[in-house]
Amino acid sequence: MRNITYCEALNEAMLQEMERDSNIFVYGIGVPDHVGVFGSTVGLLKKFGKERCFDTPISEDAMTGFGLGAAINKMRPIHVHIRVDFLLLAINQLANMISCYRYGTGGTLKVPLVIRAVVGRGWGQSFQHSKSMFSTFAHIPGLKVVLPTTPKDAKGLLIAAIRDDNPVILIEHRWLYWQVGDVPEEPYSIPIGEANILKKGKDITIVATSWMNVEAVKAADVLEKIGISVEVVDPRTIAPLNDEIIIKSVKKTGHCIIADNDWVDFGVSAEIATKIYEKCFGVLKSPIERIGFAHTPCPTARHLENCFYPNAVTIIRSVEKKLGLEPMDLTGESFYSHENRFKGPF
Amino acid sequence: MRNITYCEALNEAMLQEMERDSNIFVYGIGVPDHVGVFGSTVGLLKKFGKERCFDTPISEDAMTGFGLGAAINKMRPIHVHIRVDFLLLAINQLANMISCYRYGTGGTLKVPLVIRAVVGRGWGQSFQHSKSMFSTFAHIPGLKVVLPTTPKDAKGLLIAAIRDDNPVILIEHRWLYWQVGDVPEEPYSIPIGEANILKKGKDITIVATSWMNVEAVKAADVLEKIGISVEVVDPRTIAPLNDEIIIKSVKKTGHCIIADNDWVDFGVSAEIATKIYEKCFGVLKSPIERIGFAHTPCPTARHLENCFYPNAVTIIRSVEKKLGLEPMDLTGESFYSHENRFKGPF
Amino acid sequence: MSNLSMDIYRKLYLIRKSEEEIRRLYPENEMKTPMHMSMGEEAIVVGVCHALSHDDQVFGTYRSHALYLAKTENTDNFFAEMCGKVSSMQKGKSGSMHLCDPNRGFMGASAIVASHISVAVGAAFANLRLKNKKMVAVFFGDGAIEEGTFWESLNLACLMKIPVLFVCEDNGLAVHTSESERHGYDSITDIVGKFKCNVLKEESTDAETIYKLVLKAIKLNEENQMPCFLHLKYYRYLEHVGINEDFNIGYRSKNEYIDWAKRDPIKLQKSKLLALGYGKELEIIELQIDKKIEKSIFLAKKAPFADESELYKDIFSDNEAVI
Amino acid sequence: MSNLSMDIYRKLYLIRKSEEEIRRLYPENEMKTPMHMSMGEEAIVVGVCHALSHDDQVFGTYRSHALYLAKTENTDNFFAEMCGKVSSMQKGKSGSMHLCDPNRGFMGASAIVASHISVAVGAAFANLRLKNKKMVAVFFGDGAIEEGTFWESLNLACLMKIPVLFVCEDNGLAVHTSESERHGYDSITDIVGKFKCNVLKEESTDAETIYKLVLKAIKLNEENQMPCFLHLKYYRYLEHVGINEDFNIGYRSKNEYIDWAKRDPIKLQKSKLLALGYGKELEIIELQIDKKIEKSIFLAKKAPFADESELYKDIFSDNEAVI
Ligand SMILES: Cc1ncc(C[n+]2csc(CCOP(=O)(O)OP(=O)(O)O)c2C)c(N)n1
Ligand SMILES: Cc1ncc(C[n+]2csc(CCOP(=O)(O)OP(=O)(O)O)c2C)c(N)n1
Ligand SMILES: [Mg+2]
Ligand SMILES: [Mg+2]
């Protein structure tokens, strides 16, 4: 047992892999500075020098193409974005270049490129720093999209991404950075494309992505007190989406809620719901409930932001409704509060 | 009755609106040249001069921001892209700027901006000129996304888009350009957010987008011969998605196929399917079948391209399977063949 | 001259004082929005905005406190928005990073580096077409010129003869990264000068100098119908985001700051006016502004938050029902 | 010299002849891929590629017939891919717009204007780090310099001292739009010259002149470790896409063509060699190439199409099962 944070796990994954393979390098805006992308790249510059850990101009599009070029020439780049929103400047590279480069060369070239992008709430980030966008990435054939939830996943999936010969986008929720968990010291990888049951249960299944897993587990813990047994399934990888464990769970429970860390409409929750409906046809006892962001741009003011984002309480109320329960008394329960974690400036 | 093509309908819509309101202008790469974006902008330069119909540098990102800037200052720009793939260079403007500009100004400014983008097959367009991407646009709150199918829709929805005070993206399949239909001469608008029943039926519902409606209607006509009554519903607008007519239809038929002009996974078909499953819970007689592109980059060679794209035959076979019918003999049927329409070069 | 100098001082003082109040109040955690402070850049925005008319338009970045106040002097809305209150035009939806006040020509601010530059060009194009004589100035940092869209926008404005003022506020830093680690050239003005563009540059912290430069830029534009690129240096006093100094971190030296602070734009303007014997007038102005700000803060604090339904409003025009 | 001239002629002739064959065969509709013909640009690609070694790498655009053949001389794969056959390395998936042959240093071609430029910079960066001495040249049109990513890539290469050859093939046109309607400046080389970049330009249609220029560029790079921007003019003989002339349309005049055709790169090289008395050798070479091409076309036509399962292959490496 060695408890470290998700952030430390990410850092350790890169450190160990970079020690193993000198062709791996990490780059991106702010990567080598003292803040190190919320701490995740801290220490890498000192250890590997600026040849392998470097800052870049504010040129997301070119820096993404740059990664592709280095990857087809046998390097293994890790490109880091402190917010996924900035990656929108490079969608052309993702959709028109990276995702199909190998295909277009008849399999001659490989594209071992990792793109890490942070999502999540801060100190009033507003509408330009709050998107998730992973459903768009998942929609495009040729990209793998991974959303680690636990510290153990963070290390294992990042190592798997680095070792993968294909482009992998890792989506990391910044609130997860502080999650603490048991993480093996030695390098290991967790297969891309495997779901994970975060909590076993039998009355209802919650499929959650990224941070929403933390909220879902919390909701499950609270509901347990009134005798409701919730199973929380984390797909971890959304492209390719392996739905086996999800389907098995829903077949068992008969009820399902999907809690996605994104807008609901045309999001990941739609694809997962469709798969479940199809494969559990006739088995589902109630329609699937989808929980996600309000379908609005994200506002700045905290009280509006709180309405924008769902949380454990949203999930609890939704479970109660689905199972026909009276709303339970939640006074005394302590839920995750960002405010308790930090105050500004960003 | 006046039959004109979809392309002529688009052209007429712009012409009539530009005559009405001198603040409307149309621009984009190739817009004023003799080819005129597959013919749709032909004649506008002559009529309105290059102040209101102009070419641009190959700078999709800036030209999109440019449209936003003109729109908030009370002009009404129409930005045209000969392929939607090029719009990927401007996703940042769509997602981080255009979609939330009004929101961020507390409703002070309006963004009456139309973006027209062409999708569809050509003479071996390959993986960089064959995307659809509209599910991504639909995912982002603050954008309206419209996919006209018939010539009448083309004119009415484009006029509606031009008159709308909000950003509207119009997705036009290039094969539809040759469709002929009755189009009123006077200017008229079709409300954004209204589905349309293209063919009435009672045994099964096909919800189709863009070109797939033509294939669906063809499939329906063929199936009619063996006594199968297919209802074809065209949502026309996917954001905001008004599913009333779709739901009514599926409640009536009990069976549903969604034929989307895009990749299946994480596409529009997932959102529509989820809505149907939810609102027709217990009513559906079989799981929804989703038809779309193969989940691969689009290849160039025609025989592989033919496997990539679904068509009326795909739909017929799918209906038969769903209704437990033997595959019917299709010899003698003539299906749409691109080859008969034109040969290269693009 | 003294009227001009005094007006300029008023704006300089208004900005500095407002930000000082932010520094005082931020730790109370009522302003839940990331503060990218302007301290140090006041001469630029005041100089430029003073040369513009009320109806002229500006576009800014997430670092727009100074620009917003220089253009609008609207401290009521400023503090209301910082506190996320319903009394702000944006009702708290936008925060510090997306200030706006279109009626006073502040057309918006973007927190995606460089993304507003092309928008400004489009806005200027519309003004040209509508012949309404409104100028457009777009402000951005030295980091923004690394984004491709800057070059696209510059090319476009030069090509179409759109009279934008491109105002590059060069503090030599993008977050913690110095210019030399980001730019593959020695002089941006040398490069831009090769476009069909007027180019002016200045390192002064004297707002009046900047003001005169901008008058010149506007005149140049009238003469040759070319946009103008203004390259203006300044020193960022505080950390990239947040209200503190950060000289202890080591990526820059405090000595630089000390040098620049000697010619601090507010102090500079004040000493000029004092030398001219305007001590009394200054006192009055400062007092008025202190009051104005105090009142704005009081109102902001007192105001309620918007109703939760506000979340769903103002996404679409005339179409609130459909979201 | 004569060997060099002859080698260069061989490549020039190979390219021209191959495209003439495309013009002959395209109406048969077996090549179902959009043809952006190279005719007119042969001197550039041959001049550049001849100065590169076998292992050096190039990146091209949708208009890469000439570049592909100059770098690889691989007519078998070329025609197989044009016909969409399984005998091509890409098995018909890519067509005319996405030629590639990494083993011969042709690293790929993109049909999204300018999108490959940054990829080339990254590839050159990898070569630098891996110390494998491979040069990288990236080819793009005068339209590509309007895309922001060109400027980002240029800045990056200059900043990081990555020795890329940026080869701008300037035909003065983007589809039907002339340069003056797209560029807000007079001279791109004047601009790029202000970056930390070597700049060379040439209007010659003599491949040997280009060849020497590139040797100079490579030498310059060794001396000062800066990338090099080569600005090379040429005339596009045919329509933007397709195999026909288009002088009847009116956006350009046939007289321009007639002027350029007088110094057509293939004719020019041939007449130089003829003047030196190499008539016999030329005949032999031409005959060899005619045969080579004839055989490649024969093989391409004869080859079968790939199995339909090919659609799903080569998306992911080692991971064909998961798509
Ligand atoms: C497209 C994009 N990339 C990255 C960022 C993160 N970021 C925020 S501010 C900043 C530095 C910008 O520097 P500069 O333009 O010089 O402005 P300054 O902060 O110095 O005023 C960066 C990289 C961003 N906001 N947008
Ligand atoms: C990003 C993007 N925008 C638009 C197009 C459409 N398009 C194809 S070729 C072309 C012109 C390019 O001109 P240039 O770079 O000079 O190359 P040339 O065709 O002259 O060789 C355009 C606009 C495209 N392929 N990619
Ligand atoms: Mg800066
Ligand atoms: Mg050209």
Fold topology:
The complex is a heterotetramer, with 2 copies of chain A (346 residues) and 2 copies of chain C (323 residues).
Chain A: E1 3-5, H1 6-20, E2 24-27, H2 44-48, E3 53-54, H3 60-72, E4 76-81, H4 84-87, H5 91-97, H6 101-104, E5 114-119, H7 134-139, E6 144-146, H8 151-163, E7 168-173, E8 180-182, E9 196-199, E10 204-208, H9 212-224, E11 230-234, E12 237-239, H10 244-253, E13 256-263, H11 268-279, E14 289-293, H12 302-308, H13 312-323, H14 338-341
Parallel strand pairs in A: 2-3, 2-4, 4-5, 5-7, 6-7, 10-11, 10-13, 13-14
Antiparallel strand pairs in A: 1-8, 6-12, 9-11
Chain C: H1 2-25, H2 42-51, E1 57-61, H3 65-72, H4 75-82, E2 106-110, H5 117-130, E3 136-141, H6 148-160, E4 164-170, E5 173-174, E6 177-178, H7 188-192, E7 198-202, H8 207-224, E8 228-233, H9 254-262, H10 265-275, H11 279-302
Helix pairs in contact in C: 1-2, 1-3, 1-10, 1-11, 2-3, 2-8, 4-11
The profile of the biggest β sheet of chain C is: 6 strands, parallel
Number of strands of chain C: 8
Please give the CATH class of the largest domain in chain A: Alpha Beta
CATH superfamily of chain C: Thiamin diphosphate (ThDP)-binding fold, Pyr/PP domains
Count of individual domains of chain C: 1
Which of globular, elongated, flat, extended, rod-shaped describes the shape of chain A?
A: globular
Shape of chain C: globular
Radius of gyration of chain C: 19 Å
The helix/strand series of chain A, from N terminus to C terminus, equals EHEHEHEHHHEHEHEEEEHEEHEHEHHH
Proportion of residues in helical segments of chain A:
25-40%
- Count of beta strands of chain A: 14
Biggest sheet architecture of chain A: 7 strands, mixed
Could you tell me which ligands this complex binds, including any ions or cofactors? thiamine diphosphate, magnesium ion
| Helix-strand makeup class of chain C | alpha/beta
CATH-defined topology of the largest domain in chain A: Rossmann fold
Number of helices of chain C: 11
Q: What are the low-pLDDT stretches of chain C, counting only 5+ consecutive residues below 50?
A: none
Number of helices of chain A: 14
Q: In angstroms, what separates the terminal alpha carbons of chain C?
A: 53 Å
In CATH, what is the class of chain C?
Alpha Beta
How many domain modules of chain A? 2
